[in-house]
């Protein structure tokens, strides 16, 4: 297949075979394993600061959040949650009568979804902190990826950003290229797949080493809930604003973006009022610069479906497919249309939503005035399958655990010593 | 609801079809579309609601762009009718893929009459007024009479008004699997009588290719339709998957039916707007007749494309009186080739169909489409 390239900090080079790069990647990762994890944390902290200062990267969608996420304190906390004692990433530490260490799995092959420009970094960082080599296939904006790598390669430290870059190979090629795909899978000690159901299933089914572990971040659906008391609260505008930030980020293509928001009926604020508030807030966003034909058709179909049906209503941008707010009373999760399309559904009680929740539900944006009720709802929702219940505005804030798992924990082998 | 036809519509069908400059044409179309859409909205509350929720004031339409276009798939999901059921003369159904519902188009006498006259006018402009021997590259059952008619049947019957006599080139396979095969006897008989005559051949593109052209070529058969015209429509996606382009199709038509490329005429049309067809001109550009138009819109902004741009195809027609099919947003993409400047001399918009809108390859980990569909 044509146009297969390796994306390096310094530019793109043609890619014909991955196999020839694997030995060097593994050797570089072995060298990285000799560095203390504290050094890697420092380098990544500096990287985060540089991302928002570099003209190349500061305008990438989601880079401000990525920068904050890369702060040493944040990564340290996440790593401690996944691994426990960080020193175990550097060698054996006492554990009762024995010693424990967390060793890298080796070579981690990653298939990235193209929906979120900064997603590769969120996936790379846990692999680097656990001192693995990475073979990554990206699916989207390779210009953005190159800029992200260039800024990393410029970071000084021990290890330097260049040393970290040497532990990874980022490639872009057609997903139908069977040979490159086979090479990636065969070489892997762990496979990480982000994407839709079909892509994830295909990657899982590829030939692989017997010890290789599969880690899938498959398709997920996210939603929101607004309680009656929150509707009556003085800061409803703030709640709506925060939800609209969640809707606008990554054009609603992230698995954490809300599509349906259930609104508890209130005698004080009608669903129409809430719809108008969302419409007003969505109208303040900058117009979208481009949209594919398929999503446009989905938006137009949804608008018509809601317009023609007397039981439904909608607010929508005039003359363009910019944003759409659909109102109804059907207790159901609506199919994700994406690209600033939100379904607001009135319910008598938010507890009615719980039976709709299943293991493919990822994040629930919860807007409750009563914190205790929020906790009770989250208990029920998470028991039913959801994995995150967070305040509006935080739905797309990547964190560990994600999709119910801690990637860093999945990327180590626990080894024991009893001398 | 009255089914009276605005004299302006009669004039558009009866007059010069491709002579008006685009600006004049749009003005004339709007003049008849405003009252027509108001009448249809009065009879079809769903459409009235659609217009209202789009914030559209019919009286205020000043450009064709102002008409809110109804997405074509809504005819599958809603029973959109602007006249009482007893006034419906025929229901037209689109072909539906497995698990999909067909479009349901409710045609009253007025609309049926306009469809027939409009189609005849377009064909007359392209083929001349003389009725021709008509060979349908399909089976007779596809056009069987009844209250419900498929898209194939509607097209076959629509062209029949242009025929002197009608024959069918295909028949059902004796295997009983619903497949079609060449009716050699019918073909031999048709060409025994009409070889070298100005015949009219019509079929759906994929069927013409797989069941006629390839079979004739495979059998080493050749018939003389050298003075005829082969009209065909639809189905390019399957052919593109088999790497069959227009030139390949035309070459096979030449080898098997002695037709020159200019005699192989593709047209764009849909069951939701029967009678409104956009025929290829002599240079292969599709044209909108006086009673219809095509808007190519940019995805996202929905602004009209400039020449050379590819966008979503919206079709406008003044023929539908019994359902809200005056402005339909298709799920097809086309390239706007120009306005008032086709080398063939016809005025107005000229365009080419490019492809169906396809699902974008990568929608990411937030794309639960397959799961939601699977759960149904």
Descriptors:
heterodimer, A: about 425 residues, alpha/beta, 7-stranded mixed sheet, 15 helices, B: about 375 residues, 6-stranded mixed sheet, 11 helices
List the helices and strands and how they pair.
The complex is a heterodimer of chains A (419) and B (376).
Chain A: E1 5-8, E2 11-14, H1 19-32, H2 37-53, H3 63-69, H4 72-83, E3 93-95, E4 98-104, E5 107-111, H5 119-129, E6 133-137, H6 142-153, H7 161-166, E7 168-172, H8 178-187, E8 190-194, H9 197-204, E9 213-217, E10 221-226, H10 228-232, H11 236-248, E11 258-264, H12 271-282, H13 293-308, E12 313-316, E13 324-328, E14 341-347, E15 361-367, H14 371-384, E16 388-390, H15 407-410, E17 412-417
Parallel strand pairs in A: 5-6, 5-8, 6-7, 8-9, 10-11, 10-15, 11-14, 13-14, 15-16
Antiparallel strand pairs in A: 1-2, 1-7, 3-4, 4-17, 12-13
Chain B: H1 7-14, H2 22-43, H3 45-53, E1 70-71, H4 74-77, E2 88-93, E3 104-108, H5 109-127, E4 132-136, E5 148-150, H6 151-160, E6 163-168, E7 170-172, E8 180-182, H7 184-194, E9 200-204, H8 205-219, E10 229-233, H9 236-241, H10 246-257, E11 264-268, E12 278-279, E13 286-287, E14 292-297, E15 310-317, E16 327-339, E17 349-356, H11 369-375
Parallel strand pairs in B: 1-16, 2-5, 4-6, 4-9, 9-10, 10-11
Antiparallel strand pairs in B: 2-3, 7-8, 11-12, 13-17, 14-15, 15-16, 16-17
Helix pairs in contact in B: 2-3, 8-10
């Amino acid at each position: 297949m044509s146009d297969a390239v390796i994306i390096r900090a310094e530019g793109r080079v043609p890619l014909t075979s991955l196999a020839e790069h694997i030995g060097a990647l593994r050797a570089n990762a072995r060298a990285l394993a000799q560095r203390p994890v504290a050094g890697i944390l420092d380098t990544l902290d500096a990287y985060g600061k540089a991302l928002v200062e570099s003209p190349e990267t500061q305008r990438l969608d989601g880079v401000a959040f990525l920068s904050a996420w890369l702060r040493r304190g944040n990564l340290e906390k996440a790593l401690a949650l996944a691994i426990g004692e960080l020193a175990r990433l550097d060698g054996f530490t006492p554990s009762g009568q024995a010693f424990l260490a967390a060793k890298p799995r080796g070579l981690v092959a990653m298939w990235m979804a193209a929906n979120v420009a900064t997603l590769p970094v969120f996936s790379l960082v846990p692999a680097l902190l656990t001192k693995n080599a990475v073979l990554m296939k990206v699916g989207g904006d390779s210009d953005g990826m190159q800029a992200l790598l260039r800024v990393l390669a410029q970071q000084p430290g021990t290890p330097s950003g260049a040393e970290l870059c040497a532990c990874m190979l980022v490639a872009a090629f057609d997903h139908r290229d069977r040979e490159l795909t086979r090479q990636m899978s065969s070489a892997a000690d762990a496979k990480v797949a982000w994407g839709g159901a079909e892509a994830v299933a295909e990657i899982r089914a590829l030939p692989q080493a017997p010890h290789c572990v599969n880690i899938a971040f498959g398709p997920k659906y996210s939603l929101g809930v607004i309680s009656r008391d929150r509707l009556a609260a003085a800061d409803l505008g703030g709640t709506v604003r925060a939800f609209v930030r969640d809707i606008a980020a990554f054009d609603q293509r992230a698995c954490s973006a809300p599509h349906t928001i259930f609104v508890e009926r209130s005698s004080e604020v009608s669903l129409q009022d809430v719809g108008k508030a969302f419409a007003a807030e969505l109208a303040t966003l900058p117009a979208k610069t481009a949209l594919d034909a398929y999503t446009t058709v989905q938006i137009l179909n949804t608008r018509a479906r809601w317009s023609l049906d007397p039981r439904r209503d909608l607010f929508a941008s005039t003359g363009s497919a910019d944003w759409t707010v659909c109102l109804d009373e059907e207790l159901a999760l609506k199919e994700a249309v994406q690209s600033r399309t939100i379904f607001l559904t009135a319910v008598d009680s938010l507890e009615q939503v719980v039976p709709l929740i299943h293991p493919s539900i990822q994040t629930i944006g919860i807007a409750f005035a009563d914190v205790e009720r929020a906790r009770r709802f989250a208990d029920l929702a998470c028991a039913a399958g959801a994995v995150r219940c967070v305040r509006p505005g935080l739905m797309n804030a990547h964190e560990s655990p994600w999709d119910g798992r801690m990637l860093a924990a999945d990327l180590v082998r626990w080894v024991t010593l009893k001398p | 609801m009255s089914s009276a036809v605005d004299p302006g519509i009669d004039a558009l069908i009866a007059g010069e079809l491709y002579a008006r400059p685009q600006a004049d044409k749009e003005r004339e179309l709007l003049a008849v579309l405003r009252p027509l859409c108001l009448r249809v909205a009065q009879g079809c509350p769903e459409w009235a609601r659609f217009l209202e929720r789009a914030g559209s004031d019919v009286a205020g339409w000043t450009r064709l762009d102002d008409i809110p276009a109804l997405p074509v798939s809504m005819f599958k999901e809603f029973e959109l009718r602007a006249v009482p059921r007893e006034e419906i003369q025929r229901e037209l159904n689109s072909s539906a893929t497995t698990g999909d519902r067909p479009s349901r188009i409710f045609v009253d006498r007025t609309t049926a009459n306009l469809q027939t006259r409009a189609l005849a006018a377009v064909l007359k402009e392209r083929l001349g007024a003389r009725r021709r021997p008509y060979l349908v590259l399909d089976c007779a059952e596809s056009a069987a009479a009844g209250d419900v008619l498929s898209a194939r049947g509607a097209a076959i019957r629509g062209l029949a008004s242009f025929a002197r006599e009608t024959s069918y080139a295909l028949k059902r396979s004796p295997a009983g699997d619903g497949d079609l095969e060449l009716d050699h006897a019918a073909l031999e008989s048709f060409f025994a009588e009409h070889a070298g005559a100005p015949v009219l051949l019509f079929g759906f593109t994929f069927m013409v290719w797989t069941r006629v052209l390839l079979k004739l070529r495979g059998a080493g058969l050749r018939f003389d339709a050298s003075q005829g015209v082969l009209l065909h429509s639809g189905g390019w996606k399957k052919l593109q998957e088999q790497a069959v382009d227009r030139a390949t199709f035309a070459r096979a038509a030449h080898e098997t039916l002695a037709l020159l490329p200019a005699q192989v005429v593709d047209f764009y049309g849909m069951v939701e707007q029967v009678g409104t067809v956009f025929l290829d001109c002599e240079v292969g550009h599709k044209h909108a007749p006086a009673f219809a138009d095509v808007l190519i819109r940019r995805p996202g902004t929905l602004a009209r494309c400039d020449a050379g741009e590819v966008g979503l195809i919206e079709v406008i027609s003044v023929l539908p009186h019994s359902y809200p099919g005056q402005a339909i947003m298709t799920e097809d993409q086309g390239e706007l080739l120009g306005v008032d400047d086709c080398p063939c001399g016809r005025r107005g918009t000229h365009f080419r169909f490019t492809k169906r809108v396809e699902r974008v390859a990568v929608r990411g980990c937030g794309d639960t489409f397959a799961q939601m569909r699977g759960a149904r």
